[in-house]
Design goal:
Chain lengths: 802, 140
């Protein structure tokens, strides 16, 4: 079976969603949609046996073969890990949304169409082997994310958040496309596998670093890394299922996927390792610190997602070091990165769903109004507790395992001796440790400020009660995974993580079993990670307990000095600045625009003509002039002069007709009957049209023109005339390539079955031209109709209003 | 003021058909002698304009009860359909086919898919030109 087609299954299913939503009002549309991710998840699990052996599967669908662009579904350890994440979490999110979104109040048709488009896009991103189709799917995720964030489009904040995420991620996407094209130039192919195979030849290429930075820009904007993370908190305006799905589990991990996928190509570079590790760690630090500032449940989770993404990013950077050294600890980093990616999806998904449940059941997400929900919502509390403790990095939850591995890896960077890491390496474990302390604080802050303490009953908009079981089902499944993974980390490692590690580092391993990592919860007292964790718990607990004393520190930062303010200022500036720039030369007068056009055409053509020394007149190629021609030319010139000095419009129109007819006569003289015929009829029709429109035209006036204006116009008019004449003469005098006429003469009978070359050119040889010309003609006709009919309708309206 | 245009109207009634028939001739002859869909369409347009000049817009609309906007669409579809029809015969887009057929009355006639394409051009030219003229002329 061509499983590349399965990428498109969700988007095809999306076609039926609006119909199902409209026709079957009684059943929540989500139940039908649920089938898609469940089926796909089931199907993709069958690949596990292949990828576990380090194998891969390929299925290809040609798209534009001539440009080397195709849809290729390349499933290896890394792709399958992401595909399962997308379909698995997707199924749980759809299940959750069935209870979260009311089937009678919400526009479910829109919601599920967007969600399914996203699913296709995301599967496409993680499976595409062709960078161009990868880019296509990448932008499609941005667009579907835009639509989903703006799902409640009547809210100002939703539209703002949607636009912000779109601007930032599409900016990154475009940069990434540039990087891809540079890679394509270097490698002569768009296939990632082929690029990886010859990556060793890229290192000294002048485009290497540039393409590296461009691709990282794409990854960093998508995965909300510093300083681009600002879109993610605003994206929380989306319905909670979307936040759980796109903005924590899948889409924001596309950047991580990209970094992992391109590691084999770029790991050799110092810039790559510094940027990925450094920016990742900075993001981890920044996000964790600002998470504690937030008061909205989802905003806390958004900042925690930013910070966790940074954590995984820094691990990917540290993992790339294996390219330069064989120390086992860095192999651990890559394993930890992908392992934490799974763990993060489980615990953060469940936490988002709980935040949604709290919002749904109490009517608010403001943590200042919440508290004491533990006794009313015991199940939600348990799930939230498990998720938060895992996020804080405590046993017996999966977050503990990957967090320990993270701390170990960061600690090891201290000893890495290449690229000046021995000077600056000590910063890494310190920053990682501080960030972990804050992670601990915001995890506790999230769960205990919501569920523990005293209830502030009077402030809640709704009377809180436990959520229905259907809504709890998905978070419960995720939370149980959080616990289960803690006890069987090596099974997960064997099935999912090690094949993925192998896919990321093909130069290191020939088989997944060679990834020598065994995850264990206990490393003995000598392990630095253990003592770092102990330190995190002690300091974190102390800081959490004194939170109310120092949380005010955050208000020191003024609003106008934030990254958000920078974004707002950029947007306002570009909007106003561009407006001013356009107004500067767009004054709304057609004559001005014509002056621009004609002036530029003649200046550019004339200068090219003279710079290239292309102006040649060959007198010998001219036809002899006969007396008819001379008389005709005199009439033509007289007609033109008459137009120029005509005082009435009617006179000018008639003179224009005369000019046209004398041109037609020239065609007759030079034996071009087709042209003559067409010219004659065109002149007739256009003069008639002028006469028809005559009564609507305003009186001929000078538009307040001065002498200087007129002089400028005359110069431009003269320039255009000279240009056209010179081009015509030069074109006639020298032929760079021999004329195609002979080919037409030779083939008109045999190839086209016709006799009149002019017409055969129109309908056959250059049929495309004609096709587009008549299309333009139709558009013009409909345009005129539309403009005049619309104006008529307006007139009637204003009359009625009187 | 009422102008006396009996001569114009009477001549027009006759001349219209001459021009129209000539345009049809030119359209069909186009593949071998000067002419074709574009010129043919323009000539028909010219004939209709003559009618418009001699009579008023309403009379012409009554005499020629076509929706010219739809005619434009039909023409465009015809042209595009001819061009894309070749795809179904596994030849590149816009490949024309032609052959000689023996037809009753006409004898041996060369039939060409280019003619269908040209008919599309004809209809688009007439349709959009008259649409423009009708909208501008009808706006007062």
């Amino acid at each position: 079976m061509d499983f590349v087609l399965l990428i498109f299954l969700p988007i095809v299913a999306a076609l039926f969603v609006p119909m199902l939503f409209r026709k079957l009002k009684g059943i929540h549309t989500g139940w039908f949609v649920l089938v898609v991710p469940v089926l796909l998840f089931g199907y993709y699990t069958t690949f596990l046996s292949t990828t576990m052996d380090g194998g891969h599967a390929i299925s290809e669908l040609q798209w534009i073969p001539s440009l080397g662009i195709s849809f290729v579904s390349y499933i290896d350890g890394l792709s399958i890990l992401f595909s399962l994440l997308i379909t698995g979490i997707g199924a749980l999110v759809v299940l959750y949304s069935i209870f979260y979104l009311d089937k009678n109040k919400e526009k479910l048709g829109n919601f599920y169409v967007y969600l399914l488009i996203f699913m296709t896009a995301m599967l496409g991103v993680v499976q595409s082997d062709n960078v161009i189709s990868l880019y296509l799917f990448w932008e499609l995720t941005s667009i579907s994310s835009f639509l989903l964030i703006g799902y409640w489009f009547t809210r100002d904040r939703s539209r703002f958040g949607a636009l912000k995420s779109m601007m930032i991620t599409v900016f990154g996407g475009l940069m990434m496309l540039g990087g891809f094209i540079l890679l394509g130039i270097m490698g002569g192919t768009f296939s990632i596998r082929e690029l990886i195979a010859q990556s060793s030849t890229f290192i000294n290429h002048e485009f290497f670093t540039l393409s590296l930075i461009l691709i990282l820009l794409g990854a960093f904007t998508k995965s909300a890394q510093f300083p681009f993370y600002i879109w993610l908190p605003d994206a929380m305006e989306a319905p909670t299922p979307v936040s759980a799905y796109l903005h924590s589990a899948t889409m924001v991990k596309a950047g991580l996927y990209l970094v992992a996928r391109f590691t084999p190509i770029f790991a050799v570079s110092e810039v790559w390792i510094w940027l990925v590790t450094g920016i990742g760690l900075l993001t981890l630090f920044w996000g964790s610190i600002f998470a504690v500032k937030q008061t909205d449940l989802k905003a806390i989770l958004a900042f925690s997602t930013v910070s966790q993404l940074g954590l995984i990013m820094s691990l990917l950077g540290a993992g790339a070091i294996t390219f330069h050294t064989n120390e086992a600890i860095f192999a651990l980093a890559m394993f930890a990165a992908l392992f934490h990616l799974i763990n993060h999806a489980t615990f953060k998904g469940s936490l988002f769903m709980i935040a949604g449940i709290v919002d749904h059941e109490t009517g608010t997400r403001d943590i200042r109004k919440l508290g004491g929900l533990m006794s009313i919502m015991p199940i939600s509390f348990t799930v939230a507790f498990i998720g938060s403790m895992s996020m804080a990095g405590l046993p017996p939850f999966n977050g503990f395992l990957s967090k320990e591995m993270f701390l170990d890896s960061m600690f090891a960077l201290r000893d890495f001796s290449l690229f000046n890491f021995d000077t600056w390496g000590i910063v890494f474990p310190i920053v990682a440790w501080i960030a972990s302390v804050f992670t601990f604080i915001y995890s506790f802050y999230f769960v205990f400020k919501t569920f523990a303490g005293k209830r502030k009953k009077e402030k809640l908009p709704l009377e809180p009660h436990e959520a229905p079981i259907g809504m709890l089902l998905s978070p419960i499944i995720l939370a149980s995974l959080v616990v289960v993974i803690f006890f069987i980390p090596n099974v997960v490692g064997k099935w999912l993580v090690k094949p993925a590690v192998m896919a990321v580092q093909p130069y290191e391993y020939a088989h997944p079993s060679e990834v020598a990592v065994t995850v264990s919860a206990w490393h003995g007292f000598a392990s630095p990670a253990l003592w770092m964790t102990v330190g995190v718990i002690i300091i974190g607990a102390l800081l959490y307990l004194s939170l109310s004393k120092w949380q005010k520190i955050y208000s020191i930062q003024p609003d106008h000095l934030s990254l958000n303010a920078v974004y707002d200022a950029t947007m306002t500036f570009s909007e106003k600045g561009m407006n001013r720039l356009s107004r500067f030369y767009m004054n709304g007068l057609i004559r001005t625009y014509l002056i621009y056009i004609f002036a530029f055409v003649s200046v550019i053509t004339l200068s090219v003509l003279f710079i290239q020394d292309a102006f040649v007149v060959d007198m010998s190629s001219f036809t002899e002039v006969n007396s008819f021609g001379i008389i005709n030319a005199i009439i033509l010139v007289l007609g033109v002069i008459f137009i120029l000095f005509s005082k009435t419009r009617l006179g000018a129109i008639i003179a224009l007709g005369a000019v046209g007819y004398s041109v037609a006569l020239f065609f007759v003289i030079f034996k071009a009957p087709d042209l003559a015929l067409t010219q004659l009829v065109i002149e007739t029709v256009s003069v008639a049209l002028f006469l028809l429109a005559f009564q609507h035209l305003p009186k001929l006036s000078d538009h307040g023109e001065t002498k200087r204006n007129k002089l400028a116009n005359a110069i431009i008019a003269l320039g255009v005339g000279v240009t056209v004449t010179l081009v015509a003469l030069s074109a006639h005098s020298q032929k760079l390539i021999s004329s195609i006429s002979q080919y037409y003469i030779d083939t008109v009978k045999t190839e086209a079955g016709g006799g009149n070359i002019v017409n055969v050119i129109l309908v056959d040889y250059r049929g495309f031209d004609t096709l587009f010309e008549i299309a333009v003609l139709s558009i013009a006709g409909i345009g005129v109709l539309g403009m005049i009919k619309l104006r008529l309708a307006k007139k009637e309206d204003s009359n009625e209003n009187k | 003021m009422k102008t006396n245009d009996v001569i114009l109207q009477t001549t027009t009634k006759l001349v219209f058909f001459i021009i129209f028939l000539f345009s049809i001739h030119i359209f069909f002859a186009g593949h071998y002698t000067p002419g074709g869909g574009f010129v043919g369409g323009l000539l028909t347009t010219g004939a209709i304009i003559l009618l418009l000049l001699a009579f008023d817009l309403k009379t012409v609309q009554k005499a020629l009860p076509f929706n010219f906007t739809i005619m434009t669409g039909i023409g465009l579809l015809l042209a595009l359909g001819t061009a894309s029809g070749s795809i179904f015969f596994n030849v590149p887009f816009f490949t024309h086919a032609f052959d000689d057929f023996t037809l009753p009355l006409f004898g041996v006639t060369s039939l060409h898919t280019a003619m269908i394409f040209d008919a599309g051009v004809f209809l688009v030219v007439v349709g959009s030109a008259i649409t423009i003229i009708q909208s501008i002329g009808g706006d007062s």
